[in-house]
Amino acid sequence: MKLILLGAPGAGKGTQAELLCEKLGIPQVSTGNIIRSEIKSGTELGNRVKSIVESGALVPDTLVIELLKNRIAQEDCKPGFLLDGFPRTIPQAEALEEICAVDAVVEIYVPDTAIVNRMSGRRTCPSCGATYHVTHNPPKKENVCDSCGADLIVRPDDAPEVVQGRLQVYHEQTEPLIAFYRDRGLLKTVDGERPLEEVSASIYEALGIQ
Q: Of 116, 136, 147, 199, most Cβ neighbours within 10 A?
């Protein structure tokens, strides 16, 4: 099954993607994690996008598409995959249609005010990219990643003023994808302003997963 998760920054896409991938046995393809890995490795591409990511702006389409094509061509993506953080724009969605067909698009809807409050509690692992929330999805040990044991951080783009800017970019550039995929009969919308388990259950129901 080839899936896309849509929703504003902080809507909970990353957490739901991990749960959904585990249930379906498919890899999570997060362009954000790929980009952060490039930045951490100090590659040429990483250095090019570092300042863009930290300002909360979007990475240029050509760079994102290059990364994505390389990732979904790998062996573990043959049975299917879940895209988290891509596409972000209509041109990206059109480019994706040239690469592959997706089976469904799930939108996790959360109002802006709730997102700003939610992001202030988010913590990220700088080593493996895992995400947590101090209230909704805390690590087993405070400020320590469950997966690799690294100290968790508050990402620069989770600062309130940056979040507001990211939301504005989302509404201008990414929100049109809702109509784009609705017109194609692929869109399924769930209410993301609920407990984690309830959101997961709604996603499974929308996708016909037991």
A: 199
Q: What pLDDT is stored for residue 202 in this prediction?
A: 96
Annotation says 194 is catalytic: no
Q: Is 118 a catalytic residue?
A: no
| Number of domains the chain contains | 1
Q: Mark whether 36 is an active-site residue.
A: no
Containing structural domain, residue 46: 2-113+159-207
Return the SS3 of 56: coil
Q: What is the mean pLDDT of residues 182-205?
A: 95
- Checking if the pLDDT of 146 tops 90, the result is yes
Q: Which of 2, 71, 155, 188 is catalytic?
A: 155
Ranking 34-43, 138-147, 194-203 by mean pLDDT, the lowest is 34-43
Q: pTM of the prediction?
A: 0.73
Give the per-residue pLDDT at 82.
96
Nearest one of 184, 21, 23, 177 to 108, comparing CA atoms: 177
The single residue of 88, 118, 123, 188 carrying the catalytic annotation is: 88
What mean pLDDT is reported for the chain?
89
β 131-133/122-124 pair status: antiparallel
CA distance 51 to 54: 5
CA distance 88 to 65: 11
Residue 121 lies in a domain: no
Q: Examine the residue annotation and report whether 166 is marked as an active-site residue of this protein.
A: yes
Q: Is residue 75 part of a domain?
A: yes
Q: Which of 2, 13, 71, 188 is catalytic?
A: 13
Kindly tell me if the per-residue pLDDT of 103 is higher than 80: yes
